[in-house]
Amino acid sequence: MTRQRVKAEPRRRVFERARHYCEYCRSPERYSPDPFAVEHIVPVIKGGTTTLSNLALSCQGCNSHKYDKTEGRDPVSKKVAPLYHPRRQRWSDHFTWNEDCTLVIGLTPTGRATVAEMDLNREGLINLRDLLILVKRHPPEEIAPEED
User: What is the span of the domain harbouring residue 21?
Assistant: First the structure.
């Protein structure tokens, strides 16, 4: 598979647009031990383009779990559903936080499939959310979807 590099200016715009938060698990880049990635929402191998409307900011964990997936199985209905698309969908339409804001809860087939496929409640994320809650830096504000 040919890797499409994202040039500096679009990369900067993706980081700014996402306010330096993973667009899937909503973790802040500032507290990550690993650099965040600009990822193709629809992978190049599946016809995705290297345009701002197909790029999202992703932490390494979400990027690794998503890899080249565009759909997953909804654990409730057992049917295949498309994964969350940060440019076309609003996060709060598909996800919410549990009562103490440590877990992402899928509200729709897309939300549930994304939580399951991308493991949005990995142990390290839960630990990070616990700590960020203590210092009043979690949960993050909603970011409206924006296509460029």
Answer: 8-134
